[in-house]
Each structure stands twice: as structure tokens, then as C-alpha cells.
Design goal:
single chain, Tetracycline Repressor, domain 2, mainly alpha, about 190 residues, Arc Repressor Mutant, subunit A
Length: about 190
Amino acid sequence: MNELDERYSTAEEAIIDAFFLLIKEKDFERITVSDVIKKAGIVRSTFYNHYENIPALFTAAEDKTIDDIFHMMESFHPANDRELCKSYFLAICNYTKKNPFLASLLESARGDGFFEKAMTMFHQYVTQVSDVKRNGNVSREKYSYLIAGIIGSTLGVLHKWTAEDFESPAENIADILTTIFLNGILPFMI
């Protein structure tokens, strides 16, 4: 990566990080370009080199969050190993807790567009994984529904956790998600 690419990437990260911090402080609708550039420590032209406006930044934040989640999902290889599963779900919990954008979407109606986009991508992921990774004893259709079930239950648990302002430790939530997966989903996948 050359110096120009590196600076562009660094500025983009600063803008997204500033947006994530601002989400903790105020409603999305009240965030301005001035807020973002002040928090990111950049000039206005740098913001506009990356994004047309705040809605474009919002879309980029959605895309980054979905991409991060998919990277985590792709690294998970279901197995009947409690510690492996718990470490995966703990990573998801920690990501949710440190990503105020995702947390705010999980606890508000504002997340409808994000979840529609995410569910479309989850469906594509489930279809791809069903074709490649499923056990021969389980039909493709059943396998895809089981994966959809764990995605749905994970989102439901994370929604409750964020709505309760992360009162329970991430380890407890990861343990609950692990139990749901190992006892409720995995037995039907093998």
C-alpha cells in the first residue's frame, strides 16, 4: 500500500470511528458533518473526499458492520466444542458492545434498513454454506433453516442485551448463546 492509500484508509477509519463515538452521544438524525470532522480531527474537504453526506456515512457504517460480522461468521466452524463456541460468541458479544452503531441499531426501530440488508446477506451466506459445509445426513433445506435459526436467536439475544444496556457480562451472554447453539441447533445439524 502506498502512502496516499494509507492516508486515505486512515482518514476513512477516523471518520467511521468518530461516527461510532457520536452515536453514543446523540441520535443519528442530529449528527452533522461538523460533528464528525471535529471528532475525527480532520478538515471538511477530507470528509467530502470520502462521503457525500451523513446518510452516505451511515450506509458505510452499516456496510462495515455487516462486513465485520461476516468475517467473524466465516471464521466459525461449528463443532461440539464448548470452549470454541463460547470464544466465537464472546467475540460477537464484545464486537456488539464496542460498536455503538450496531448496539444502537439493535435497540431501536432505526435498524430496519440495516437488518433488511443484513438478512439478505445472511440468506446468501446460508445458501452458500448449506451447499458447501453441511453434513450429508442433513438436507440442504434443513441445514439452511438451522443456520437461519441460530442467526435469528443470536440477534434476539443481542437485542435483549443491548436493550438492557449490557448489564450482564459478555461472558454470560456468550455462555447463553453457546448453550442455545450446542443444545438447540447443533444436534440437528449432524
